[in-house]
Amino acid sequence: MPRIPRPTDHTSLPRPRHWSDDAACGGIETAVFFPVGKGGVPASVDAAYAKSFCLGCPVRPDCLGHALSQREDFGVWGGLDEDERAELLRQARRAAEKQRRQERERASASSAA
Question: Domain map of the chain by residue range?
Answer without folding.
Answer: 29-112
